[in-house]
Write a structure and sequence with these properties.
This protein is α/β, with parallel strands linked by helices. It is built from eleven helices and eight strands. α9 links the parallel β6 and β7. α2 packs across α4, α6 runs parallel beside α8 and α8 packs parallel to α9. The structure holds 3-methyl-2-oxobutanoic acid (KIV). 3-methyl-2-oxobutanoic acid binds next to β6.
């Protein structure tokens, strides 16, 4: 029997095991995450900032997302790879959304796609699933709406906003999402949503009661030495280590100590 992670298997973890998920955008990182046994790897549109240097997720294109999704799926043997649909790849029409989501599976080799938005996305989610494309929902802070919201902030703090997020979660579950990302909301609300739905919730800045957690790989590795969001735990200081390594290499080359005899042919 295959031990590879599928959307069905992810869904079946509800109430049984916690899901540790991370983002990846390249072959090597994906290979290491897969070897570490992570059930789900998201090729997030955070690619825009982490790899491509944009200020937010809005500019990243379908071609850029597919290019990186292919690199990730070439490496992965066990994890479920989810392609994040970029801004304006699914908002314009259902026809475009199905075509673009289909490209993640057909050309990118992904097992599912992620889209942002709550109850109003139900008809689109149903259409994607009807066409054989599994969907990971994403509610709470939805970074693609940053121009509307005016910034990144914790969502669901008022009673009305919390009730709306609960409705969003239920509607996305009813639409057929196999799991839901809950981003930046009070832990108590994420706990309530997690209790209310039968599909796994995967939190980011949503506290410990979710069925799983997801973080941006660059954040946990300390690749941005001067910035860590409150909800991130850093497991390495690669940013600082890399600067140190580059500087040491520079010093060795400039000082003539590299290459040494053992590096010569
Ligand atoms: O693009 C992204 O990285 C995300 C998060 C949920 C991690 O959407």
């Amino acid at each position: 029997m295959s031990t590879a992670w599928t959307t069905t298997k992810i869904r079946a973890t509800k109430g049984r095991e916690k899901l540790a998920c991370l983002t990846a955008y390249d072959f090597m990182t994906a290979r290491l995450l897969d070897e570490a046994g992570l059930p789900l790897i998201l090729v997030g549109d955070s690619l825009a900032m982490t790899v491509l240097g944009y200020a937010n997720t809005l500019p990243v294109t379908m071609e850029e997302m597919l290019h990186h999704t292919r690199a990730v799926t070439r490496a992965v043997k066990q994890s479920l790879v989810v392609g994040d649909m970029p801004f304006m790849s699914y908002q314009v029409s259902f026809e475009q959304a199905v075509a673009n989501a289909g490209r993640f599976l057909k050309e990118g080799g992904a097992g599912a796609v992620k889209i942002e938005g709550g109850a109003f996305r139900r008809p689109l989610v149903e259409t994607l699933i009807d066409n054989g494309i599994p969907v990971l929902g994403h509610i709470g802070l939805t970074p693609q709406s940053v121009r509307k919201t005016g910034g990144y902030k914790v969502e669901g703090r008022t009673a009305d906003a919390a009730a709306q997020l609960l409705t969003d979660a239920r509607e996305l579950e009813a639409a057929g999402c196999f799991a839901l990302v809950l981003e930046c909301m009070p832990s108590a609300l994420a706990a309530e949503i997690t209790q209310a739905v039968k599909i796994p919730t995967i939190g980011i800045g949503a506290g410990p009661h979710c069925d799983g957690q997801i973080l941006v790989c660059h954040d946990i590795l300390g690749m941005f030495p001067d910035f860590t969001p409150k909800f991130v735990r850093r497991y390495a200081e690669l940013g600082r280590d890399m600067i140190r390594s580059f500087a040491a290499y520079k010093q060795d080359v400039e000082g003539g100590t590299f290459p040494a005899p053992e590096h010569e042919y």
